[in-house]
Every structure is written in C-alpha cells, then in structure tokens.
UniProtKB/TrEMBL annotation:
<dbReference type="Pfam" id="PF07969">
    <property type="entry name" value="Amidohydro_3"/>
</dbReference>
<dbReference type="GO" id="GO:0016810">
    <property type="term" value="F:hydrolase activity, acting on carbon-nitrogen (but not peptide) bonds"/>
</dbReference>
<dbReference type="InterPro" id="IPR032466">
    <property type="entry name" value="Metal_Hydrolase"/>
</dbReference>
<protein>
    <submittedName>
        <fullName>Amidohydrolase</fullName>
    </submittedName>
</protein>
<dbReference type="InterPro" id="IPR033932">
    <property type="entry name" value="YtcJ-like"/>
</dbReference>
<feature type="domain" description="Amidohydrolase 3">
    <location>
        <begin position="69"/>
        <end position="541"/>
    </location>
</feature>
<keyword id="KW-0378">Hydrolase</keyword>
<dbReference type="InterPro" id="IPR011059">
    <property type="entry name" value="Metal-dep_hydrolase_composite"/>
</dbReference>
<dbReference type="InterPro" id="IPR013108">
    <property type="entry name" value="Amidohydro_3"/>
</dbReference>
Length: 541
C-alpha cells in the first residue's frame, strides 16, 4: 500500500493563522499519481502562475490556500500530462487535409476513397496516406495501373502507413521527372518487366515531395491547430515532433507567442544541410512551450516495407537485407558535427544492422561525454550483443503499438529466432538503460495514448489477440509505462525539472481520466476517456 504523499507547509507559518495564500486553482479530493521519485500519491494541489505551488492532502491544501477557481475531483484519478516521446505532429495536422487511407482492406478500397475525396475537393494534386498492404488479402505492393486509368492528368501520391513507401501514378512520376533511368541510393524505385510500378521506397520519395505544391502558411497553421485538438483529447500536453524544418518550427513559435497554439513541442530538426547550418552553431532555442535542441537522422527504412537494414537477409525475401538510407561515413560525419554542438542526436533505427551502426557510433563519440542523452528512435530489432550500449546517455525511444501492429507478420520478415532474441524488446531495453521513452509515432499509429499504454502492458490488440500477449515477457508494468509516458519522456527531452511529474515548481500540466488507468481491468484500458486536460493550470480540453 503506497503511503499518502504529505508536505510540510513551512511557508504558511510565516502568515497569521487566519490568512491563506492566494493561488489561481485548487484541486481537491483526487487520486493523484504524482510520478515523483517515490511514485507518491496525493489528494490535492494548488496552482499559481501556471505552476504547481503545493501538493498534499485536501485538508492541508484548503487550510493553507484559497483560489478563485476550485475543482472537486470527486475521487477521480489525476496524472501528469502525457508526453508523446516520438510523433509527427505537423504531419498529423497536414494529413487532416488529405485523403485518409487508414484501415483500407484492399487496393479497391483505396481507389474508392480517392474517388470520393476528389469528388468533394477537386484537388490539382491528390495526396493521402495510411495504406498498409499487410492488412490486405494480397500482401504485395499495389501498382499504379488503376490510378493511371482513372486519373491520367492528376498527380497522385499516397504514403504507406509507416511513411517509408509511396504509391504514385504516372502523372506524379512525370511531374517529378522520374523514369526507369533515374539514379537513386538508399531505397528503391520499383520496376517490373522494365516498367515503373508506381512504388517508391525511402530516399527516392523525396523526388516526389520536391515536386508537390507546398502548403500555404494558412494551411500549415490550420494543420497545427487540428493536430493540437486531437492530442489534447488524449491527454497529451507535450509532443516530440520527430523531424521538422525551420519554417515549421518558426511558425509554431509565432503561433505560441500569440497564444493561439498552446501545445508544448520538443522539436527534432530534420537532418538537412540548411537546417544544420542554421541551428548547430547556435545555442538551443528554448521557450516554455518550444524546445529546439535535437537533430533527427534517418538510419534506415521500415520493416513493413522491407526497408529496415538487417544483418541477415529477410526471411521472406531471399537476398534482400533492406538498406541504410545514408552511407555509414555520412552518418558518422553528421554525428561528429552534432557531438561538437550543444544539440542532441536522435536517430531512426529499425533493423539490427542500423541499430548496430548507430549504437557503435554513439558509443565512440560519447565515451567521454556525460549527459548528452542521445536517443535511438524505435530500437525495434536489436542484436542480442548490442543491448549493452543502451544507458541513460544512449536512450531507447520506443513505440509500443508498433509491436501490436507488426505482430501479425513480423515473424515472416525476421524468422522466429531473430524475433524472439531482440525484436520489440521493451523490457530488455528498460532493464539495460534504466528508462524508456514511450511514444506513438502517430500518424503511423493512432494518436491514442491509451492504445500506447495498453500495448505496453498487455501486448495485445483490441480484439484480445494473442491470448497471453505477444512476447509477453517484454511487457512493461503499469508504473513503468506511466513513467515512460511522463517523467522518462521528459528526461529524454532534458525537461525533467519542469514537467513529467506533479511537483512544486513544475508546469501545472495534468489530466483527469474517467477511470484509473493504474487499476482498471486491463481489457478496458483502450476505452478510457480523458475528462479534462490542463496545461499551465488552464483547461484546454
């Protein structure tokens, strides 16, 4: 039985017995998980100037403080605001303006949604995303033939769910100048019988992106606000946006300064020459809502599109190993440049070969560097001998729903032995590093923080499959999961002293749920609801 967290209100003694300190908000009669060092419980807290002023019992808080706004929680559970340690916030917002292909069960389903979307929107260039051929009866990549017939003059570009493959039509290929002779490295421009199929994987996708019309500033701002609304509904008060450009960062900052955009963002700048040249010779940029102090590098592709770089060939494709998206020397050059700056390096690594390159490089550069907190984003398939490199200075940043999304076909890609020894090994990563930062990777996965929590502790889908859980030995406890979504995620952002727990002096970011996620029956976790989301003590949902 956890002890109730109490505080000595020494400062109150300085006042007369009949005087109370004025604060902005008092919350009472709650079941508060503070997620402090002792994982203590409390009943009430006071908020002043956007920060927690005091935490204790209801009687302690109400006897020492008074406020214009009070909230009786009526026994409901309250937690620190959730932090998504790896997502694509800006991309989520833009996708609300595109054709949504999530949940499609066939190529015909994709085509139907495009036709319906175009009838309503009449776009000069159709974009969309969310398809996953692994959910179809025919699990092979689709081809562009039907799109060419229906839309011969309108370019179409459709991202796979993981963002590492594109299906495009001939009009989009022509606009980008892509032919069977187009050179590329780090990915694929797929051909069959000497003809382009319309599938591009990883690096060549940039040719398509460069030829697309760019969103206007109004469309960008609209996207940010749409993403914010979705995130607040799931109790997120900080989101790590994993790979954005200077233009997006500066728009976020401008909207935040005018108090239109409230979400706290930890920005990973995309690894482009322009971004690196602008940021790395400067100090990190930090406000209460925006923290720009990390670089995002893509090591390899994704397992679902067979772009993850593996040490041994794919079990379901002879002679295929995936690919690093940049030469090893290029990665080492960028890593060395970041090491000489004040910035953190966060590298996407899915396959065991990519993880090996990243971990060895990190280890060599950080041997004499304390508290750099470089991160491995995904750390999805790690060779058994490479777990030793993880620590609080080389942090695993993982997304539990990847395990429950991939579990139906992951063994086909990897084989049983490789899967069991080091894939989706969140508990093993935690035991080695001492922490894991948890995220969703939305919109690759759903925004839902509750699906993240459920996947981490149950290792099942929402249909209760598989019985007993997928590789259940790698499940996290509820306490570990809550820490991974709050204080450990804050630590991975160098923000543990200002958020991630309900403690005096930290931002008053907190959420109230309809049921206690720490005690509700496991099967009910995906169905939980956020009753209220507070940021800086202000109710934002």
């Amino acid at each position: 039985m956890r002890k109730i967290f109490t505080m000595l209100f020494v400062s109150v003694i300085l006042f007369s017995c009949d005087s109370k300190q004025k604060v902005d908000l008092i919350v009472t009669n709650a079941k508060i998980y503070t997620v402090d060092e002792g994982f203590s419980m409390a009943e009430a807290f006071a908020v002043k100037d956007g920060k927690f002023e005091a935490i204790g019992t209801t009687s302690e808080i109400t006897s020492a403080y008074e406020a214009n706004e009070t909230m009786d929680a009526e026994g409901k559970a309250i937690y620190p605001g959730f932090i998504d340690a790896h997502a694509h916030f800006y991309r989520l917002g833009l996708q609300q303006q595109m054709v949504n292909l999530v949940g499609t069960k066939s190529y015909e389903d994709i085509v139907g949604r495009i036709v319906e979307f175009q009838q309503k929107n009449n776009k000069s260039y159709i974009t969309g995303g969310g398809w996953d051929q692994n959910d179809w009866e025919d699990k092979e990549f689709p081809t562009k033939d039907t799109l060419d017939r229906l839309f011969p003059d309108t370019p179409i570009a459709l991202s796979r769910i993981d963002g590492h493959a594109l299906l495009v039509n001939q009009a989009a290929l022509d606009k980008a100048g892509i032919t069977t002779e187009t050179p590329f490295e780090g990915g694929d421009i797929e051909q069959k019988n000497g003809e382009l199929t319309g599938i591009l994987v990883d690096n060549p996708m940039q040719l398509i992106f460069d030829s697309q019309p760019k969103p206007t500033e109004d469309e960008m701002a609209e996207g940010l606000m749409a993403a914010q609304k979705m995130c607040f509904e799931y109790g997120l008060t900080t989101v790590v946006d994993a790979g954005i450009d200077r233009k997006v960062i500066e728009l976020m900052d401008s909207l935040q300064q005018h108090n239109d955009f409230k979400m706290r963002i930890y920005a990973m700048i995309s690894n482009t020459e322009e971004n690196l040249n602008y940021y790395l010779d400067k100090d990190p940029y930090k406000t209460d809502r925006l923290n720009v102090r990390s670089v995002k590098f893509y090591g390899d592709g994704a397992l679902g599109s067979r772009g993850a770089a593996l040490k041994e060939e794919y079990s379901d494709r002879h002679g295929h190993f995936g690919a690093l998206l940049s030469p090893v020397e290029t990665f080492k050059e960028v890593a060395t440049k970041v090491a000489k700056s004040k910035y953190q390096l966060n590298t996407h690594a899915i396959g065991d070969s990519a993880n090996y390159v990243v971990l060895k490089t990190y280890d060599s550069l950080l041997k004499n560097e304390a508290d750099r907190r470089w991160r491995v984003e995904h750390a999805q398939i790690v060779d058994e001998g490479d777990f030793k490199y993880f620590s609080k200075n080389i942090i695993p940043s993982v997304q539990p729903t990847h395990a429950t999304s991939d579990m139906y076909w992951a063994e086909d890609r990897l084989g049983e032995q490789r899967l069991q020894e080091g894939a989706y090994a969140y508990k093993k990563l935690l035991d080695q590093a001492g922490l894991v930062a948890l995220g969703t990777d939305f919109p690759v996965e759903q925004v839902s923080t509750f699906l993240t929590f459920y996947a981490a502790v149950a290792r099942k889908d929402t249909e209760d499959y598989p019985e007993g859980g997928f590789m259940k030995e790698e499940a996290l406890s509820r306490e570990e999961t809550l820490k991974g979504m709050t204080i450990w995620a804050a630590y991975a952002n160098f923000e543990e002293n200002e958020k991630g727990s309900i403690e005096k002096g930290k931002f008053a970011d907190f959420i109230m749920l309809d049921k206690d996620i720490m005690e509700v029956d496991e099967s009910n976790i995906p169905n939980l609801k956020v009753l209220a989301t507070y940021l800086n003590g202000e109710k934002v949902f």
